[in-house]
Automatic annotation (TrEMBL):
Serine aminopeptidase S33 domain span: 83-206
One Pfam match: Hydrolase_4
Protein name stated in the entry: Esterase/lipase
Length: 391
């Protein structure tokens, strides 16, 4: 009887130790499925639910995920090439899920990780640091590179800054870098004020989240961390030009990040001859040069004027964010509750990145969350990866 009692005590202590591990860090030798279960437990204990009857869907949306190569792929290629992906600030793995699935269909193992402070509730970003994010990237790469021969690192927004920094500091370890609407500077001339603002307030706004895949508001301390990581990585790349293969896809009209800074960094410091940029622009004509392609995104026949920050990587067929999806991004109408709700429910609305022209078409226009040319983008990325895959 006593022996059973002590065994139960020992087992409970062991389980407690397992769940006490940092939920965001995958440990050396840990099976991904075990790590995923550990994260899921943490999320279910700490997540703020949009709809408490929808817990499984909401949890799976923000859970780290891995996709294996499509079943039609040559089995000899499985395990050779992989993509390790990271989402942006306030986002979750769901934001890059479409991209991950499309690349897995191109015979790649794709793993999407969850950054500290994300996936639970926006208040959890109050005390997270860019060092936490860096540690997660480093641990994730170390683990994934033990399973895949050649690793491409990919990141959306802040995740793009993080993987760029990792690649620039570890150029011998990565096969290439894929940047999706990367953050190298916040799109405001007063981003430098964020550290001062954060001294006086934790929030510039604090809206209740109605989107189960991302937060509605970002606390000022987290904005400061994003500002600082962008500044540090920008300086690192600017002062250390490298020929690491880089692929960038972004919108010229991006309201979240300063696309002009990314363009300058690409031209001056991402100097590999085979590096490529796919620039979406509602004003420039379609064009193609050696390293850069421009896609015009003025599509009034589709009621679309330009692509947004997250719209670049959205699959039109996504059932949540897609063209006929169940959720609409209408944040710029939040100050007017009636207009916000009308934007979310409008059947024949206009979409794009915010502009006077867009709002003149519809006073409840929404922020586009899909890319009508998503398949072409995935083909570009797939071609880039194949061109830089070492056999």
């Amino acid at each position: 009887m006593f022996s059973r009692f002590y065994i139960l005590i020992i087992l409970s202590l062991c389980v407690s130790k397992v769940w006490a591990s940092d939920p965001y860090i995958i440990e050396k030798g840990e099976a991904f499925s075990s790590y995923q279960a550990r994260v899921k437990h943490y999320l279910q204990e700490n997540k703020e639910w949009v709809n408490p009857t929808n817990k499984e869907i909401e949890t799976n949306a923000v859970l780290p995920q891995q996709w294996e190569p499509d079943a039609s792929c040559n089995s000899a290629d499985i395990g050779k090439h992989g993509v390790l992906m990271f989402h942006g600030l306030s986002d979750s793995p769901f934001s890059v899920r479409d991209t991950a699935m499309a690349l897995a269909a191109q015979c790649l193992r794709v793993r999407v990780m969850l950054l500290p402070g994300h996936g639970t509730k926006q208040e959890d970003l109050l005390n997270v640091s860019r060092e936490d994010w860096r540690q997660t990237v480093a641990a994730s790469f170390a683990h994934f590179s033990n399973e895949v021969d050649h690793v491409f690192v990919a990141g959306f927004s802040t995740g793009g800054a993080l993987v760029t920094e990792f690649a620039w500091k570890n150029p011998e370890k990565v096969s290439g870098v894929i940047l999706l609407s990367p953050l190298f500077k916040i799109n405001t001339s007063i981003d430098w004020l964020s550290p001062f603002v954060s001294v006086f307030t934790d929030w510039l706004d604090r809206n209740k989240t109605d989107d189960y895949a991302k937060y509605a508001s970002i606390p000022t301390p987290a904005i400061v961390e994003a500002y600082r990581i962008a500044k540090e990585v920008r300086a690192l790349v600017r002062d250390n030009p490298k020929d690491i293969p880089v692929f960038i896809a972004m919108s010229e009209e991006d309201a979240t990040v300063d696309s002009s800074v990314t363009l300058k960094l690409f031209d001056q410091s991402m100097i590999g001859e085979s590096s490529q940029m796919l620039l979406y622009s509602r004003t420039q004509k379609a064009a193609q040069t050696n390293r850069k392609a421009v896609v015009n995104t003025y599509w009034p026949e589709q009621k679309i004027i330009g692509l947004s920050h997250m719209g670049v990587i959205g699959n039109p067929s996504n059932p949540y964010y897609g063209e006929k999806g169940s959720y609409r991004i209408c944040d710029w109408h939040r100050s007017d509750e009636a207009r916000y709700k009308k934007c979310q429910s409008a059947k024949e609305n206009w979409y794009g990145e915010r502009s006077d022209e867009l709002l003149s078409k519809s006073d409840v226009a929404g922020r586009i969350s899909w890319n009508p040319q998503f398949k072409n983008l995935m083909n570009y990325i797939g071609s880039f990866i194949r061109a830089h895959s070492v056999e």
